[in-house]
Amino acid sequence: MMPIEIGAVLYVGAIGLVVIGIAGIVLSHHLFRIILALVIAEAGANLLLVLSGFRWDAIAPIITGGGATQTMVDPVPQAMVLTSIVIGVGVQALALSLTLRAYGAYKTLDIRELQRRMSADLAGEAGTPLPQSLEEPVGGRPLPAAEGDGR
Amino acid sequence: MNTIVLTVVLPLLAAFVVPVLCRVSPLLGRLLGPLTLAYAILLTLQVWLGMEGKPFSIALGGFQPPLGINFYVDRLSLLFTFLTLVTSLLLWPWRNETEPRQYALTLLLAASACGLALSGDLFNIYVFYELISVASFGLAAGAAFAASLRYLILSGLGSVLVLCGIAIVYLQTGTLNLAQLSQLAPETLNTPLGMSAFALILLGVGVKGELFPVNSWVPEVYAAASSRVSGLLAGLVSKLAVLVIVRLLVLLFQQESALQLMLILGLLGAISGELAAWRAKDMNRMLAFSSIGQLGVIFIAFSIPGETGLFAGLALSLHHLLVKPALFLLAERWRGSLMGLRGAGLASPVAGGMFVLLALSLVGMPPLPGFWAKFLLFTGLAAQQSVIYQVALGVVLLSIVIEANYLFRVVMNLFQPAGDNSVAVITDHGWLNLGTTFLLSALLIAGMLFMGPLGAWLEGVAIQAADPVLYFDTVFPVSAIH
Amino acid sequence: MTPLDELLLFSGLTLVLLLLLGRFSYAGKIATVFYAGQLLFLAKMADRIADGAIMTFSLQAELFGQQMSWRYDALSWFFAVITLGAGLLSSWYASGEWGERFRRRGGNLWLLHVALAANVFSMLILLGSGDLLALFIGWELVSWASFLLMTVAGGRAIQAAMRYITYAMSGAMAILAGIVLLWSHAGGLQYGQIIDVMPQLSQAQVWLLVALFGAGFAVKMGLLPFHLWQAAAYAETPGPGAAFFGAISARMGLYAIILVLVQLIGLARLSELTIPFTFLDMRDFWAWIAVLTIILPTYTALRQTDARYLLAWHGIGQGGYMLLGVVLGDALGSAGGLLHVFNYATNQAVLFFAVFAVMFRTGTADLNKLGGLITRMPISFFAMLVGIIGLAGLPPMNGFVSKWFVYRSLMVEGEPLLFLGAIIGTLGTILSVYKLIHNTFLGQLRVEHVEVREAPWSMVVPMIILMLLIFATGVAPGLVLDWVALVQSAVGLPVVENTLGGIELASGSLDMLWVVGVLFAGFGIGALLFYSGGRTRQVHQLDNYAGGHFLTAETRYHYSDNFYAGLMHLIRPWYRGSFVWLESTLGSLLGIAASLMQRLYGALHPSIYLLVTVVVTLTWVLL
Question: In this structure, is residue A132 part of a structural domain?
Fold first, then answer.
């Protein structure tokens, strides 16, 4: 009984982490938080992988001299997770370096602002500038006619 | 025969050696990459000739499958290995003398793409897929780091989904070896849970494959990145993603709803891509949206069950692989606003003529190869019973009309004499770009002239790839009791 | 080497030669000679085709399980002779001073010659299709070759060409859809296979096929409602190109309609299909489309002020007669329809030649800026006169015979409404061509045109040839009717029995030899009386007075603007521009969809789409 309930909780947790991560990516507009949300989602996926090979009455899949005779959990998903964690770390590092560069160029990490300025830059480079609204009206402000001018 | 593994190993080694070598001797550093790729191409051809058309399996490290990882070499994998190496060589970033980074990343891309094509283990495919991602992030970030941020986030999310999908597959079947999975799949994966695994993997891998709706990174990245990178991404990486999905469809997910899901997403991608391309105002973005549309059509082709689907999809993929990089290479000098291109075709008639040829083939004018690929698709779609395939037929036809309109709008602009208000047109394409485009166009025409034998050969590739029983029997030669 | 091999190879050789040598000034003359050569090769086949043989092309291709073959039967030969004749005369027209001036004014003469040769070559290929796949390949080649020819002039022609290619691609895709559906039913695309499988198809399936093929071919032919592209595209093409287009290009659609709808599907099957919610069947539907095509564009032609546009709109209308004749399906009607293809080609060509001759000398084709040129360009006037008599359908020209056949057939078949429609169309024809000749040649000569001379010989000789041809085939229509009879027997329509002068049936006969004889006898007597009376005196046009003033050359007394004011006052409210509205609505719908897609891809949070898709997919999958 117990293992099944714990198992259900763990599965819910893993999927929940993924959902939290996706929600974070979708709902945040701070770049760093989006990357953190990605990290959480990856953690959730890794947990799901480990769970897929887990057995409740087994020990860690490490041979400690003298031939183990107890059942072990499935080592294949654990190997997968190791690889996946490493890949994830690499990708996160790359993401952070890109974030630093983005901050250096645009001085903001708000993705709405980044998106707007980036598409304006791209369009400007491409020679198809996006229509911008002006800060001020064009031309000088018309002044009332001076006294001496004939009407 | 085992030398095929070197096509993965050698470029990988070279990728790490090149930056070091560049510090010692820039000339050697520049040449190492292309030489490695050329040697790998020779190896591939050697294996091809030695293979005599029969597939074989290599157990890496001597560990036998299903616990060990194996490389499965059939005509399809070999074809994609060959195409990867040749495309990387053709689109090699020659100009970056001071940046060995690009060389290393391209070599990494080539190595991991070969591995992806050859691998016979599900997680191994994932690892190579992530390697390709990292390499393409690096390549895309060269010029447009802000655009590649969105690409990275979407791709990361996609990887999460793929991992969840793999987890579900492992949960259901207990193995990661594709051959064993193909045997276990009909009982274990033909469930809603298996279908959800497919959906997750499809969407995850589809990020690279420009599948709707995860393709919003495409316009920005292609618009900002250099043309060679865009050519590599659009031409090569997207096809590899499609290859992964196709292998999984053939071996693991043989149910009809999987095909239908892919069909619907492909349909939406085709029509949205072409319509958005119609509104595009600059060349790279137009080509990006066109790429989305074409890949939607390729997904539709692969969603036809059986060897007809594989044949049509392969023909379309090959055609796109030839045409898109060529168009991107031409677009390198013709970047920027479409209105500013007035008279560019008159100034450089060779480039203009090639653009017209490529556009005609993309639209599908007979007797160019593009028409035959589309004809295979249409006959395949019409032969299906389900209504949704007929709808897809109509959508693809509509997308061709829209494509003809916007492509030839550009052609008309190219060949009109430049007015006073046009931006100064850069006429010099550079002999390298022009030469590569010329080579690709010549290949296209050669394909048209030898369409018969080429088609028969491609059909053989498709028939071999569509056979899961052959796959299993090759990897486990004695009818295995697993 | 069969004669067909020789013809197609020679035609391809012409194209290659012009690609290489087209820049030289004698290219036009070379081209003319080579077209004459092609015509000779075609004439070589004439005897064998007359015996009912079929010429095959030696190259048979097989790709992906589909066989492609090319062959010429009487139908192909008939259309091919018209194509080559039009090509020959157009090239002759362009080879002399017209070409020189075109090149000097900055036009791309090389492209014009190459495009013309490409059009002729691709049409010859299309006409030889031996199965549906070859038909589609030829169709696409012709479409793109026409596009090439349309783009030669630049400027306004580009927009017209873009409109054309959108219509043409839509039509081609509809044809492809039809072909692919047929393939899935018949298993192959050979004509024999399709004829065999036709009886097994359900009415709904045949309906769909007729709709798809019909729409596709109707676009090329310019039938309502797909006709909007044709006028601007043909009118803006420079001189000989426009003549070639007007003469034969749109008739490729008719060739395909005869091949697919009449030969493969069959008129009998067409009359079995019904249009839901109406009392019409498919055959009536096509007849009505034809009649509406006769009426509406012809009355649009009335309003045009540019002579080229007037002729181009006119050309759309005449296609309706051909389709009407063919769809009627009896011996006389189909003979009239097919004969009209030939007659119309000659008439339209000579009219375009005359208009472009005037444009060459005066610099304008605007009908409000011309007048009185009969004294300066008499041969062109005579050519135009012959052309409009033929087009209006009056003896002694050939147009009379084909139209008479169609009218007679309509009456005999008992179609009073269609007959009324055809008559209204003829009324519009007569009105619009009269406007053309009046505004151009009759009336008061303008001051700036006093120095105008007749067009150069290279332009006049083709006009004279065409005039003689029109007159000869008007007097002795049996010459062409022999070929029409062969076409009818090749296609499966009932054959008309003809004599040299026309037809002789139990229910009546037409003998043009007698008609023309009587007509000329009448003219002769009238001329005799006129000239022997001796009381005539030549008076200058301006030696007159009006309103108490003597006339001067500077004042304009020539009525040309708003020519049919009275008629327009009556029917102007009927010009609603519905088809243009329809076209622009479709365009806007697509534009809105495109903007939506663009905004979709420019959205801030693509992850939302990913999320929604994942949720929807998982729900669909798990439930």
Answer: no
